[in-house]
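Summary of Year 1 activities. Much of the first year was spent building the evaluation harness for sequence design. The harness presents a backbone, in tokenized form, and records the residue chosen at every position. We chose the following record to illustrate the format because it has been used consistently in internal testing since the harness was completed.
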């Protein structure tokens, strides 16, 4: 086993020591820029507002390989930390600190791997790029989204991308995320005519008209799934109607719901389908829509299979592919790059107190990131 010139553990500690609560990078991007420039990367800041983004590039031509990550973290939160959250501390086989899993370790590991790779193979054919942002945990508008606006105008789109988000569930290497479901919220207001329950001709009961609509919505099979995505699911989360009095028909009924959907649908197609259903049952309604995340999926199997092999080469573990979990910047990058996956540490303590990572996983993760670079850029030479 090789050892990295730049020790990923030491680099992780330096980055955790930066108090980079969103959108501050607290100096962490300069640490990366200095390291990467020393290894021949050209580095550029793409900043907007308080958010900083670092773009680093080495080499030229295809294939273009992107490592993407964020250096910002969520606030450490209340008491209960065994060690101060911004003082990286090793204890009983773990490294503690805010960002140890989400996702400063990955940032350090892929930067160390990229530096190692370009010093060992300075003449490799292709391009390695890194994109680090300080606003992923916030609204993200000035982070990856903005950087991609700037970059997509002038840079060749990457062929492959690893977002270093913590993807594993139990052991480092057990899970690669190759997509995420979309999430759409709706707030449906069904209007009726309020009045006395004893005079049914003078009222229009919005609960009665909503009832068959809700029955249809809750029984609809939206699709059969789109492997590896599960079937699209619809859930009603709230129903509010009524004045509290037993003799009053209410004037309106408000229903909120959420749909988790796979890429067979778009937010627009679901909105139309549901509004059409509403028209069948209710005479006066409105829906306020809020798309909280669009789905992304990398259909092509080449890159995710190469990454799975790289993980197996280093850990002996055969990873599973998964599309579960919340959102990440992968959904934005996917619009620019055809093959995007997320791969990083175990995610059992993200955003919690006492966030930590097994110390041995740090060197291992960096080796996996190094190995995938070998598989992508050197495979012609060693006949893989
Ligand atoms: Zn994250």
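For this record, the design step produced the sequence shown next.
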């Amino acid at each position: 086993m090789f050892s990295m010139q730049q020790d990923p553990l030491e680099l992780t500690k330096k980055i955790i020591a930066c108090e980079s609560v969103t959108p501050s990078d607290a100096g962490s991007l300069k640490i990366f820029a200095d390291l990467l420039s020393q290894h021949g990367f050209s580095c550029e800041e793409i900043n907007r507002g308080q958010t900083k983004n670092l773009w680093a590039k080495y080499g030229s031509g295809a294939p273009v390989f992107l490592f993407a990550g964020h250096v910002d973290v969520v606030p450490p939160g209340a008491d209960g930390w065994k060690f101060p959250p911004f003082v990286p501390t090793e204890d009983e086989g773990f490294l503690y600190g805010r960002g140890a899993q989400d996702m400063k370790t990955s940032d350090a590991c892929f930067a160390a791997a990229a530096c190692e790779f370009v010093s060992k193979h300075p003449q490799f054919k292709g391009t390695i790029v890194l994109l680090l942002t300080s606003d992923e945990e916030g609204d993200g508008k000035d982070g990856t989204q903005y950087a991609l606006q700037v970059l997509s105008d002038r840079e060749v789109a990457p062929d492959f991308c690893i977002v270093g988000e913590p993807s594993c569930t139990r052991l480092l290497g057990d899970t690669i995320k190759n997509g995420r479901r979309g999430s759409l919220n709706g707030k449906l207001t069904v209007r009726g005519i309020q009045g006395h329950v004893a005079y049914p001709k003078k009222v229009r009961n919005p609960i009665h008209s909503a009832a068959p609509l809700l029955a249809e919505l809750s029984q609809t099979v939206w699709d059969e799934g789109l492997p590896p995505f599960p079937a699209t699911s619809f859930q009603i989360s709230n129903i509010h109607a009524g004045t509290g009095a037993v003799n009053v028909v209410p004037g309106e009924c408000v229903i909120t719901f959420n749909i988790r959907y796979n890429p067979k649908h778009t937010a627009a197609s679901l909105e139309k389908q549901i509004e059409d259903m509403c028209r069948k049952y209710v005479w006066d309604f409105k829906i306020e829509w809020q798309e909280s995340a669009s789905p992304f999926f990398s259909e092509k199997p080449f890159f995710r299979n190469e990454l799975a092999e790289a993980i197996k080469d280093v850990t002996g573990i055969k990873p599973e592919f998964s599309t579960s979990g919340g959102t990440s910047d992968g959904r934005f990058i996917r619009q620019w790059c055809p093959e995007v996956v997320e791969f990083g540490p175990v995610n059992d303590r993200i955003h919690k107190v006492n966030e930590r990572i097994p110390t041995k996983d740090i060197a291992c993760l960096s080796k996996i990131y190094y190995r995938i670079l070998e598989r992508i850029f050197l495979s012609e030479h060693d006949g893989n």
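The chain has ten helices and 19 strands. Quantitative recovery figures across the full test set are reported in Table 2.
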